[in-house]
Amino acid sequence: MLPENEINRVLVVTAHPDDADFGAAGSVALFVDRGVEVTYLLVTDGDAGGNERELDNTGMAELRRTEQRTAAKAVGVTDVRFLGYSDGRVVPSLELRRDIARVIRQVRPDLVITHHPDRNYQFIAPSHPDHRAVGGAALDAVYPDARNPYAFPELVKEEGLEAWTVREVWLNGGSTPNHWVDITEAMDRKLAALQSHVSQVSHVEGFADFVRSRFAAWAEQAGFGEGHYAEGFQVVSTA
Ligand SMILES: [Zn+2]
Fold first, then answer.
1. CA neighbours within 13 Å on the CB side: how many for 46?
2. CB-CB contact of 153 with 139 (8 Å)
3. Which pLDDT score, from 0 to 100, does residue 48 have?
4. Cα(228) to centroid of ligand 1, in Å?
5. Is the Cα dihedral 23, 62, 46, 139 positive or negative?
6. Residues with beta carbon < 5 A to ion ligand 1?
7. Considering only CA atoms, which of 170, 160, 167, 161 is closest in space to residue 142?
8. For residue 131, how far is its CA from the centre of ligand 1 (angstroms)?
9. What does pTM read for this prediction?
């Protein structure tokens, strides 16, 4: 694994608003505490989300962008970017790989955090098709696209974006996590971030308790002991 002092920039690539907050906001808060620059890249606006189901979902995309910016701020992240793909229709296309590779070359992160591209048969919730598509495209963007100057040559020729090698990827939501982050001191901020997604969670009774118990269970699995909270990732070396 990359030593802590070699992680100076982190790019979090997710499908929807609130994914980063469920999966990684505690770890992100701890990175920000250490002075790491963190960027969020959201592939969709989550315009198919929401509790008040109406056929006309006009305004949902903008509302969810605003909620995501608020959530990011709760853990100290101000660089939040959106690609504007349609919620529920994401595929790991060449276009998506190029769009993620572009941001990798702009941000030049040491570490990328994204969705696990494989279906989790133990726990289906993280395996939304958009998540798997984004995870796959992000990994392809890390290797080989972003580091290969001949992949999407227009990025160099037209935008002056030189090749960049991301050295590590943390995958969220898979069935084989091998790295646990003790997020106990950031748990309140993670919860605040999640509760910023008012259109998604404000109607869920006992939401705070549900979140705390979920991440406490992971801390137990990680062996951190009672009263702790944890986020889990599968670490992939991509150096
Ligand atoms: Zn999602």
1. 23
2. no
3. 81
4. 25
5. negative
6. 15-16, 19
7. 167
8. 6
9. 0.96
